[in-house]
Amino acid sequence: MTHAKFLDRLLAPRLEDIEALAAQALAEIPPALRDKVRDVVIRVEEFADDGTLEAMGIDDPFTLTGLYRGVPLKDKSVSDSGSLPDMIFLYRRPILDEWCETGVSLGDLVREVLIHEIGHHFGFSDNDMDAID
């Protein structure tokens, strides 16, 4: 193993790495469902911004791994226009923290967070998704 490869293994996955894992997870979703999220923007950021955390009543930014921001499909109307696109945020640092704590593979964890947020896009609540799990 070269020195450079050894150093790569010591570095935490970057935003781009999480984006690639999210793209891979999205590609594995059945086409009929994937078509329903094709207009949803997926962004990876370090943490949720302070305004989001405050609005959600979250004190510890490490507890929020993902967020869906938009109008769920079941609530959309043809008269909706001029609004921002629906977005899914994946938060790198909290995801990495959970990855280190749980031992779940990073790809599986990113997939789990992404699918959870896609569930919100379809109109499922956290309780709905907990019941499905």
**Overall pLDDT:** 88
- Helix vs. strand class: mainly alpha
CATH architecture: 2-Layer Sandwich
Helix content: 40-55%
Overall spatial form: globular
Specify the CATH class. Answer: Alpha Beta
Number of E-state strands: 3
- Let me know the largest β-sheet: 3 strands, mixed
Q: What is the ordering of alpha helices and beta strands?
A: HHHEHEEHHH
Number of domains: 1
Short description:
It is globular and about 50 Å long.
What are the defining features of this structure?
disordered N terminus; globular; 133 residues; mainly alpha; 3-stranded mixed β-sheet; Zincin_1_sf; Zincin-like; single chain; 3 strands; 50% helix
